[in-house]
Automatic annotation (TrEMBL), chain A:
The keyword Nucleus applies. Belongs to the multisubunit FA complex composed of FANCA, FANCB, FANCC, FANCE, FANCF, FANCG, FANCL/PHF9 and FANCM. This complex may also include HSP70. It comes from Vicugna pacos. PANTHER family: FANCONI ANEMIA GROUP C PROTEIN (PTHR16798:SF0), FANCONI ANEMIA GROUP C PROTEIN FANCC (PTHR16798). The keyword Aminoacyl-tRNA synthetase does not apply. Transmembrane segments: none annotated. DNA repair protein that may operate in a postreplication repair or a cell cycle checkpoint function. May be implicated in interstrand DNA cross-link repair and in the maintenance of normal chromosome stability. Upon IFNG induction, may facilitate STAT1 activation by recruiting STAT1 to IFNGR1. It is found in: Nucleus. This is Fanconi anemia group C protein homolog. Keywords: Cytoplasm, DNA damage, DNA repair, Nucleus.
UniProtKB/TrEMBL annotation, chain B:
It comes from Vicugna pacos. One of its GO terms (biological process) is interstrand cross-link repair. It is found in: Nucleus. DNA repair protein that may operate in a postreplication repair or a cell cycle checkpoint function. May be implicated in interstrand DNA cross-link repair and in the maintenance of normal chromosome stability. Keywords: DNA damage, DNA repair, Nucleus. GO terms for cellular component: Fanconi anaemia nuclear complex. The gene is FANCF. Pfam families: FANCF. This is Fanconi anemia group F protein.
Length: 562, 359
């Protein structure tokens, strides 16, 4: 407790000094400075209140002799009063100074002075035009009655002035001077969360002046972005789009905010992730290529940093899905060529990847899969093509549309035992799980996978395979598995697919999973696989009630265990 | 029902007293009671908002104060004036008490505790008043910042926010007064004219006459409570009063800027008729000074030529039918004078000549 009070004392000195410099926030520099410190000052006020509420009026004066000055200066600063909850906290602090039963003239005076300040914040602030005051009083209205209406009219008037610029274009008379627009954006900084100001914020964001440079204050964009991310303001997509296009740091912050939310919230639930994603408005905004590129870049960076973390991959896939959906909804004819979104990729490859499996009959899914595989193979294994950025770029592109690799795995499984598994699908799987492999290693992986598939195929025939049989078939030998981790992951995926699709799978599912999940990470992977599979089935409308039921049950059980 | 009305009466008294020095006799218990009553009435507002019969009965009782003759001084000592005000009667009471210096220290201390319980469960009943008061302070700061920062007075008077707000308030009051008593608006307006600065009052009247047909402030709330208020009706009352008072309409036409008057005349043909009549009257008072070669008046209150010309010019820039009406009037006056084409003989000739050359 003593430590807190020492901290508070030094803060106190700091803010006293600040307030003296700020005075009434009349100059540009002071306004700029105040806007930077508004959140911290509010925090300080809160701490002061917590300290003051424990004391009685006399103790307060003993402890903080200059508190009167501090509070009075704050009352005179309209920026502080306009910000968030600062005015409320200030009132609380003032209430702490009121003495219920003043014993001497000093205490009475303090009471009187404090009441004056309270009155000033709540009841004064006359319109400083005498006639208006007289008129409203004559009608019998108090300022409290008409201030909301006055504010609304002022906002409307400013909004129509800003919008006029749009329409009038070159009509110099009605154009709002750029300096005024700038000063307006400054005034808005503490007030973005006031609902009355929403139309004004929107009008400022969508305002396009004649000047080549940005007239709006950067702190304005920051404040709007913060308020938007914390859901303290409601803005239409067009306004948010303007915000992000005009102020890159806001866009970056929005993406980081999303990442944080995804990491901290329930992982492994794609449905939830989709909700967050859509709420963030990023997929919709990404229909504008500049925004898409920035977001994509951040995903790329995140993947590189985390070395392909499955959470980041999943988030990117959901993002791409929502983005494609938004793109289709927006217009029949795409406004921008695909190349603007994916400049490093071959347009024909992008076209194929963008195809919706939903639009293709399930029996024909192998066709686009084959094409994708062939095209990728050509790009990746062609050594002379140095410009394509190596296998990473191709893998990164494929990872956006991760559903294809999953479908490939499923296809291989469901057709096991029929014929030889198509090389194209094997290649695709191998590539997607381990893009950095050289051609020999990849060939080796493909051979392994083929072996697993043929073992599984044989097991289909046997009457009641046991869990151990299955694992043995898959080459899951427990500790000391010589195969590389990517290959092991692939195997697990195939196994799980088998459990979901094979008739005998249900019986041994739990045993198999228990034996497979040697580590937490693997358990995580299994849960992720189940969630992803169900999510994909829902979106593609796959009709497989038995498999679906099993997957759901398993997922629920495993989640319950975690 | 009766007890409800009694409560209402009692609370109205309390509200009226809360502004006077009488509160010096109040202690914490009195404050508590007053706040409780306010809360109760707010609850009544919420519950019976859709109940037409009860609402009407309450409104009738509240409108009684308008029926009282001879308001003391310029500002009526108002309590609650309509059913809607019940919705925030606790806010009204609180603000009055907070500003009243006569309230004793102990009572004030109690009031603060009740109004500002501090951080706690947000959205709880007790917290609502605290939040409303904080919002009020915040909005005030916002208005202040806009005015000293980016806001400029709109040269088009009827678009100016302050003017518009005053105009909206005026029409709202007229509505209430009109509901209480058929002749209420006329008397009310006369009283305002007697006590308020004329210049501002006239401007607000003009702005009120130019408000778009359905722009009352509480339109959303009104439609909820089922009594739509139209600016059109009160505008008619205002116009009726204005045209009935020769002193007022003369000042209206004389003192307000030409452009504003043209807009009003364009919207309200009755005004254009009176306006033109006054203008022709003023014109007749001027005579031609041969030496100086200009039209001048003899008395100090005579309207000078420049102003007369300016007003006619503005009127001629209005869209028809006003423009046509003005030109017809001028031409007929010119004909009456003898239909001269030479300048210096009839002011109407000269005006028409100037307008044509200026146009």
């Amino acid at each position: 407790m003593a430590q807190d009070s020492i901290g508070l004392s030094s803060d106190y000195q700091f803010w006293m000094q600040k307030l003296s410099v700020w005075k009434q926030a009349s100059t540009l520099e002071t306004q700029q400075d105040i806007c930077l410190y508004l959140p911290q000052f509010q925090e300080f006020l809160r701490q002061m209140y917590e300290a003051l509420k424990e004391m009685d009026s006399n103790t307060v004066i003993e402890r903080f002799p200059t508190i009167g000055q501090l509070l009075a200066k704050t009352c005179r600063n309209p920026f502080v009063l306009a910000y968030d909850e600062s005015q409320k906290i200030l009132i609380w602090c003032l209430c702490c100074l009121i003495n219920k039963d003043p014993q001497n003239s000093g205490e009475s005076q303090l009471n009187s002075w404090t009441r004056g300040l309270l009155s000033r914040i709540l009841a004064a602030f006359r319109s400083d035009i005498k006639e208006v005051d007289l008129f409203t009083q004559g009608l019998g209205y108090a300022p409290a009655d008409y201030y909301p209406g006055l504010l609304k009219n002022m906002v409307l008037s400013l909004v129509s002035e800003l919008r006029e610029n749009h329409l009038n274009g070159f009509n110099t008379q009605s154009r709002m001077a750029p300096e005024r627009v700038r000063s307006l954006s400054r005034v808005c900084v503490p007030l973005v969360t006031l609902p009355d100001f929403e139309p004004l914020v929107e009008a400022l964001l969508t305002y396009h002046g004649q000047e080549p440079q940005e007239m709006l204050w950067p702190e304005f964009f920051d404040a709007v972005n913060e308020a938007f991310l914390l859901r303290k303001i409601c803005l239409p997509v067009s306004a948010v789009l303007c915000l992000w296009l005009r102020h890159l740091p806001s866009l970056e912050k929005a993406v980081l905010h999303l990442f944080e939310k995804l990491v901290s919230s329930e992982r492994n639930c794609l449905r939830r992730i989709e909700c967050f994603m859509k709420d963030s408005l990023l997929p919709e905004a990404a229909c504008h290529p500049a925004i898409f590129r920035v977001v994509d870049e951040m995903f790329r960076y995140a993947l590189l940093e985390t070395e392909g973390a499955p959470e980041v991959l999943a988030a990117m896939q959901v993002f791409t899905r929502c983005f494609v959906e938004a793109l289709e909804k927006e217009n029949q004819q795409p406004k921008f060529a695909l190349k603007t979104y994916f400049p490093y990729a071959s347009p024909s490859l992008v076209m194929v990847l963008l195809q919706r499996p939903k639009d293709i009959p399930q029996g024909l899914w192998h066709r686009p899969l084959k094409r994708i595989s062939e095209m990728l193979k050509e790009i990746v294994e062609d050594e002379t093509q140095g410009s394509s950025g190596g296998p990473f770029e191709s893998w990164f592109l494929l990872a956006h549309f991760g559903g294809w690799a999953d479908i490939a795995a499923e296809q291989l499984l469901t057709s096991v035992g029929d014929a030889e598994p198509p090389e194209a699908l094997l290649w695709l799987l191998a590539f997607s799980s381990s893009p950095g492999d050289g051609p020999q290693q990849r060939a080796q992986t493909m051979v392994e996978v083929k072996a697993v598939l043929s073992h599984l195929g044989r097991l289909l025939g046997s009457p009641t395979p046991s869990a151990r049989d299955l694992l043995a078939a898959a080459g899951e030998s427990g500790e000391g598995d010589p195969r590389p981790p990517a290959c092991q992951q692939l195997t697990r995926r195939l196994l799980l697919n088998f459990l979901l699709w094979a008739p005998g799978g249900r019986a041994m599912a739990r045993d198999v999973i228990t034996l497979m999940a040697r580590t937490d990470e693997i358990m995580h992977e299994i849960v992720g696989f189940l969630d992803q599979t169900l999510y994909r089935w829902d979106h593609l409308g796959v009709d497989a009630p038995g498999s679906r039921k099993l997957a759901r049950e398993l997922l629920a059980e495993l989640r319950g265990q975690a | 029902m009766d007890s409800l009305l009694q409560h209402l009466e009692r609370f109205s008294e309390v509200l009226a007293v809360s502004r006077t020095t009488h509160v010096s006799t109040w202690d914490a218990a009195t404050v508590r009671r007053a706040l409780q009553w306010a809360r109760y009435l707010r609850h009544v507002h919420r519950r019976f908002g859709r109940h037409a019969r009860i609402r009407k009965a309450l409104e009738r009782r509240l409108q009684n104060q308008w029926k009282q003759e001879g308001g003391s001084g310029p500002a009526p000592a108002l309590g609650l004036t309509n059913f809607q005000a019940l919705g925030h009667c606790d806010l009204l009471l609180s603000l009055r008490l907070l500003a009243n210096r006569a309230l004793g220290d102990a009572a004030f201390h109690y009031l603060l505790q009740e109004l500002f319980p501090g951080p706690g469960v947000p959205g709880a009943e007790e917290g609502m008043l605290q939040d409303s008061l904080a919002l009020l302070a915040r909005r005030r700061a916002a208005v202040h910042m806009l005015r000293s920062g980016a806001y400029r007075e709109n040269p088009v008077l009827q678009e100016d926010s302050l003017m518009k707000t005053q105009a909206e308030l005026l029409l709202e009051r007229l509505q209430e007064v009109g509901e209480a008593h058929a002749e209420g608006p006329g008397r009310f307006l006369s009283r305002l004219w007697e006590h308020l600065p004329h210049n501002n009052f006239l401007k607000v009247t003009a702005a009120a006459l130019l408000l778009p047909p359905s722009s009352p402030r509480h339109q959303e709330e009104e439609s909820e409570l089922g009594s739509p208020r139209r600016a059109g009706e009160q505008g008619r009352e205002l116009l009726h009063w204005l045209l009935g008072k020769s002193e007022v309409i003369a000042a209206f036409c004389r003192n307000l800027p030409a452009g504003l008057l043209t807009s009003v005349a364009g919207r309200h043909p009755e005004v254009s008729r009176v306006y033109l009549g006054l203008l022709t009257d003023w014109g007749r008072h001027l005579h031609y000074d041969l030496q100086k070669g200009i039209w001048i008046g003899t008395e100090s209150y005579d309207v000078p030529w420049e102003e007369l010309y300016g007003r006619f010019q503005s009127l001629c820039q209005a869209p028809p039918p006003l423009k046509d009406e003005v030109l017809t009037t001028l031409k007929s006056c010119k004909a009456q004078d003898g239909d001269f084409e030479v300048p210096g003989l009839s002011i109407w000739t000269d005006l028409l000549l100037a307008l044509e050359s200026g146009a």
